[in-house]
Structures are given as structure tokens and as C-alpha cells.
Amino acid sequence: MKYLLILLLFLITTTSYGQITRKKSEKLIEDVQENYTVLADSPSVKHGLYQAIYRKKTAIASGKYERGKRVGVWHFYSKKGVLLQNYDYDKHAITFSSPVDTMRAVRYVIDDEIKPNDAISAPIKPGSVYFGYLAYVSQIKVPSRLGEEIDVSNLSAIVELLVSPGGRLADFKIRVVSPSGYINKVAEIPLDTLTNEDRIFLPATKNGENVGMTVIITCRFDNRGRIYF
After folding, report:
1. Which of 125, 172, 199, 216 could form a disulfide with 132 if both were Cys (CB 3.0 to 4.6 A apart)?
2. Is the predicted pLDDT of residue 5 greater than 50, yes or no?
3. Is the pLDDT of residue 101 over 90?
4. Which residues are within 8 A (CB) of 95 and not within 5 positions of it... i.e. 6 or more apart?
5. Half-sphere exposure of 86 (CA within 13 A, CB side)
6. What is the spatial distance between Cα 176 and Cα 167, in angstroms, rounded to a whole number?
7. How confident is the model at residue 143 (pLDDT cuts 50, 70, 90)?
8. How far apart are CA 16 and CA 218, in angstroms?
């Protein structure tokens, strides 16, 4: 009887865990593939292990979801596989941050006067300066009705993120421009298209006080309109 009870519990456990999720894999942007599992009865809800891979060989993010929420400590890496950041989503705290967590494509603009002796720190995105911004970069599209004569590889896509002094994303724009300025298309992106995690930052500071700041991310298209960052 004891053996049958143990066997029954084992079957219930393996059935519930074996059928509750299924694997998915999709492109986040051209060079980045996501591998994760979702709930079988809710295919849009991530649940279980998650990994993002750059060019099919370098992990740039790894962690775990529970019913659509990131939990525990996640690890974030550069495109070369260098650890950039560890972030604890349970404690909402960075447990490791590399001094090399910067990119030329990302710059910051503060809407305030800056004096020579002011100490300024930029907002920090959980997820690091690369993976953390892919949620916004992945929404870039070539604007319609540009005309067939336009070589889209000459265009730049610019993401503009206004981060409030409280560390919340307050505004999200995508701008597509040509070198001459002849093309300058701006799209306001609704914030409700983002997850809660994608709307949270560690705020910028000026002399120890929280301030608002705009994050500007510059990306490029190839001649097929695919985005690279």
C-alpha cells in the first residue's frame, strides 16, 4: 500500500510537471535567439528556465520565470560572454555590476544644468546595457511608405527612453532618420506594450539626488530592414 501511494504521488508529480510547460524558441532581434518554456495552458506566459543566445553561441542572459515574472538571480553578459550584471528580482537589487557595462550606441541626456564639480550617474537598467535594452530595440520597424528607392541600410533607428526620478519609464519613442534629415519618422510607443520589468530602472542621480534622464540608443538597419544593436 505504501509503495502504491508513493508510486501514485510520483505519477501525479511527473504528470503535473511534465505537461505544465512546453519549450519555445524565437528571435528577439536578428542576432539574438530566446529559448524558454511557457505554461501549456497559457502559451503567452513564460514559466521555467530562460536563456538568450547571441549569434547561436554566446549566452547573454539566463534566469528563471514563474508565471510570467522573473524570479531569483539573473545573470547578464556582453556579446563576448563577459559577465556584466547579476540582478536579484526577488530583492530588486543588483548583486554585481561590471565597470565595463557600457556601449558606444547608448548615451544619456540630463535635462538640467550641470556644473563642473557635479557628480552624475546614469540610470541603470536591470539586464545590463545590452540585454536590458533589447525589449525596446526589438520594437523597431522600418516605417511604411518610405518608397522603394530608399536604401534602408542608410537609415538609423534611435530609441529614446525618458526615465523619471523615481526610476520608472515615463516616455518611449522610436525615431527613424536618414543622414540628411530628409527622413525623420517618430513613433510614440505605448508603455502598456511593455512588461513591468521593462518599465523599471535604477534612477539617475545628480550629487546624490534622483533626477530624470533620457537614454538614447542608436541602432542600424541592414538592406533587408533587419535591426542590429
Report:
1. 125
2. no
3. no
4. 73, 86, 87, 88
5. 5
6. 26
7. confident
8. 45
Q: How far is it, in rounded angstroms, from Cα 94 to Cα 129?
A: 13
Could you identify the residue written with the cell 518608397? 147
Domain residue extents for the chain: 20-100, 102-229
First to last CA, the chain: 61
Counting other chains too, the contacts that 194-200 makes at CB distance below 8 Å and 24 or more residues apart are 194/135, 194/136, 194/169, 195/68, 195/135, 197/69, 197/70, 197/89, 197/126, 198/135, 198/136, 198/169, 199/168, 199/169, 200/92, 200/126, 200/167, 200/168, 200/169
User: How is residue 71 written as a grid cell?
Assistant: 524570479
pLDDT exceeds cutoff 70 at 1: no
Which of the residue ranges 4-13, 96-105, 193-202 would you say has the lowest mean pLDDT?
4-13
| 65-88: b (≥16 Cβ within 10 Å) or e | beeeebeebbbbbbeeeeebbbbb
What is the CB neighbour count within 10 angstroms for residue 24?
Answer: 12
What would the mean pLDDT of 8-24 be, rounded to a whole number? Answer: 56
Which ranges in the chain belong to alpha helices (H)?
2-20, 134-137
- Of residues 147 and 4, more confidence is placed in 147
Which among 108, 74, 103, 79 is positioned nearest to 89, based on CA atoms?
74
Q: Is the pTM of this model over 0.70?
A: yes
Residue 97 has pLDDT above 50, yes or no: yes
Q: Are 63 and 75 in contact (CB under 8 A)?
A: yes
